[in-house]
Amino acid sequence: MPRTGYGVYLPAISLERSLPVPLYQQLCGGIRRAILQGSLTRGLRLPSTRCLASELRVSRNIVVMAFEQLLAEGYVEATTGAGTFVTNTLPDDVLQVDTRLPNEETRLPPQGRKVKQLPKLTLASSDPKLRFAPFRPGLPALEGLPLDLWGRLLARRCRNASAEVAVHGEPAGLRRLRDAIVAYVGAARGVRCSADQVIIVNGSQQAIDLAARLLTDPGDVAVVEDPGYVGARSVLQLAGTKLLPIRVGREGLHVELLEQRRTKARLVYVTPSHQFPLGVVLSLTNRLQLLDWAARNDAWILEDDFDSEYRYDSKPIPALQGLDQNGRVIYIGTFSKVLFPSLRLGYIIVPEDLVDTFIAARWICDRCPPFVEQAALADFISEGHLARHIRRMRALYMERRSVLVESIREHLGELLETSDSGAGMHTVGWLPLGVDDARVAEEAARAGIHTIPVSAFAVRPLQRGGLLLGYAAFTPDLIKKGLRDLESVVRLCLRTPYGGCRARTATAI
After folding, report:
1. Cis ω on the peptide bond leading into residue 132 (within 30° of 0)?
2. Angle at CA 214, nearest 5°, toward 208 and 217?
3. According to the model, what pLDDT value does residue 323 have?
4. CA dist 327 → 209, 322, 351, 419, 447 (Å)
5. What mean pLDDT is reported for the chain?
6. Closest listed residue to residue 302, CA positions, set 328, 282, 323, 326
């Protein structure tokens, strides 16, 4: 769309001199359609007739005639000395006007099978009232974010930037950042790798997408935790895999069920350090059994090290990748939870023989990650800021977790039962048998509480419903008030029950 002297971007209006329709009528029709379609918003100042005539390379009289016609129809209004504006009140018959262009198709193209498979997502950010409402999971303590420090690091990198910042960087990511990640995951998570095996991605979701597309073919079987992370499940479905949901118990994924199944799986997606959403930890016995199974069956393990930094009752458990002796684990980490979600910087660590393939795919997806943010993050890690930030947040989250768990046990013991694992940024509150967790979450949203039903993450129906209760972003007073409001919601649902625990539909075998 061309920009005029008044700073307005006009829609592309084609004036065809070969048509029998006068040019002023073509221009009038083009502007009218733009107004009705919302391209030209109400109250917007239009360019002058002289400027628009120059832009369209027509006589000024043609533009004047078009504006006079629009003024007569009530689509624009003119103010002496101020200009011509789109009217705030459009004509009464606007809703009946056909805004389609000539020969425009009257029906949308049919959806492909992959589009039909995707779940309908409800985003908390879409409702302003729930964006920062208790107990939204995954939200960090916003008041504790080191944004001033982050801003100084970014500014320093921008001031000292060379021409390198203006061109495409390495598709694998900035070497300094990859070196810093190797040192960090080696010390904190027991991951064994070199910087050449680290690839910077736009958060864990892109890492899962890359792995799903490169390690599986359409029709392959992919194992997922049930209940489990919907984002991973959706990516695997989009890649054309058949899902094999395996139940999660107190010690994580029931690996023994893999041995009992005759179906040969190509990939297993797990969150072993803090299972999402239940929060349990994959035991050492199950870890070793899973690694052995993957080696014997030539399968890949996609390890999403979700919330591994925040463990309160014991030291973080070493990653599966560090125990792997056969190169079957692809390790995924992200800074979105440790720092802030909008950062969108994560990493994937792949076996040496897969490095070239993953880097090529990373280049095809979106060339390379942003340079300045990578450089600032490398400084943030190497100068010790990340370690200090994690220690501060761990202490803060531990306090808020204690307030939440103790308040539930003291005041809502008959309504919610917690099975807290002592890690992460949320816990699960299990509802009484027969209470529909989806309905409780809906009623809670009306009361200004944001929680997610556990059944939303399940492929198969659950015996009991539960709610994800995030605590990291909320002060003790806000947590206590939120629990009082949630108590009223649960009691309401107990008085007027309907249905049972529901599971969201998904393709499974």
Report:
1. no
2. 110
3. 94
4. 20, 10, 6, 34, 49
5. 85
6. 328
Using the structure block, give the residue that is written with the tokens 């050449």. 196
Tell the residue number behind the tokens 């060379």, with chain if given. Answer: 162
Residues contacting 147, CB < 8 A, separation 6+: 340
227/452 Cα distance (integer angstroms): 13
Rounded Cα distance between 303 and 290, Å, is 11
Tracing tokens 């769309």 back to the chain, one arrives at: 1
Between CA 272 and CA 253 the distance in angstroms is 8
Cis-peptide into 351, omega within 30 deg: no
Q: Report whether the peptide linkage leading into residue 91 is cis, meaning its omega lies within 30 degrees of zero.
A: no
Which tokens is 89 given? 């009140």
Q: With 90 as the cut, is the pLDDT of residue 206 above it?
A: yes
- Please choose, from the candidates 422, 436, 343, the residue with its C-alpha nearest in 3D space to the C-alpha of residue 145: 343
Residue 270 near residue 250 (C-beta atoms within 8 A): no
Q: Which residues pair with 201 in a beta bridge?
A: 346
DSSP secondary structure string, 383-422?
TTHHHHHHHHHHHHHHHHHHHHHHHHHHH-TTT-EE---S
Angle value at C-alpha 41, between 37 and 45, nearest 5 degrees = 135
pTM of the model: 0.77
Three-state SS for 52? helix
Instruction: Characterize the bridge pairing of strands 83-86 and 76-79.
Output: antiparallel
Structure confidence at residue 487 (pLDDT): 93
Report the candidate in 264, 220, 270 with the shortest Cα–Cα distance to residue 240.
220
Buried b (16+ CB within 10 A) or exposed e, 395-433: ebbeebbebbbebbeeebeebbbbebbbbbbbbbbbbee
For CA atoms 21, 22, 25, 29, give the dihedral sign.
positive
Nearest to 89 by CA among 79, 78, 74, 72: 74
Instruction: Give the C-alpha separation, 269 to 222, whole Å.
Output: 8
Residue whose token pair is 């393939």? 357
Q: Which two tokens stand for residue 145?
A: 């974010």
pLDDT tens digits for range 316-367: 678 999 999 999 999 999 998 888 888 889 999 999 999 999 999 999 988 8
pLDDT at 509 over 70: no
* pLDDT above 50 (res 505): no
Contact 161, 373 (CB under 8 A): no
* Domains located in the chain, CATH noted: 23-96 (1.10.10.10), 117-142+388-495 (3.90.1150.10), 146-383 (3.40.640.10)
Nearest residue to 2 (alpha-carbon basis) of 43, 62, 42, 52: 52
